[in-house]
Amino acid sequence: MKHFTSDTWTEGRVERLRALWADGLSLTVIARELGDGVTRSAVAGKLSRLKGVKQRPTVVRVSPPPRPKVVREPLPVVEKPQPTIAAAEMWHALPGTVPISLEELTRDLCAWPINDTKPYLFCGCKVARGSFCAAHASVGYRSDAEK
Ligand SMILES: [Zn+2]
Question: Which residues, at least 6 apart from 92, have a Cβ–Cβ distance to it below 8 Å?
Fold first, then answer.
């Protein structure tokens, strides 16, 4: 079904024929390009039997180059830096404060951990909200505050 006449016109050669024809080459040149005993009249005959290639097409590339798809990337979510503590400084003692140890920690002092290795140290500032000082509460209770 794919071969109209003989094995001369394999699918690949037909594709090539279409491409050469679409490039505007003459029958003679196409015949020479295809080689293997293909004559000018064989090319002409094949072209006349192929649908859609009878006339010089303006746009008959078998597979037109695909248009580069512009994929819309979602905009990166820019985290709003907290007014008091930058994310990078979140786990460091606040400037001007002296971290305290677990033993020194009381209910009135900020229990924000400022390290993750022993001995564990905590912020130790005066508690403003919950268990944290104002600065750490703004980070620790961020989701609550914004709702
Ligand atoms: Zn604190």
Answer: 114
Whether the full predicted model's pTM is greater than 0.90, yes or no, is no
Query: Whose CA is closest to 106, among 90, 127, 136?
Result: 127
| Alpha-carbon span 73 to 29, nearest angstrom | 47
Q: How much distance in Å is there from the Cα of 124 to the middle of ligand 1?
A: 6
Closest CA to 136 of 82, 99, 88, 96: 82
- Give the gyration radius of the chain's Cα atoms: 38
Asked whether the predicted pLDDT for residue 62 surpasses 60, the reply is yes
* Rounded distance from Cα 29 to ligand 1 centre (Å): 83
Q: How far does the centroid of ligand 1 lie from the alpha carbon of residue 7, in Å? A: 83
What rounded mean pLDDT belongs to the chain?
A: 79
> The tokens 């404060």 sit on which residue?
97
Whether the bond between 119 and the residue before it is cis, its omega within 30 degrees of 0, is: yes
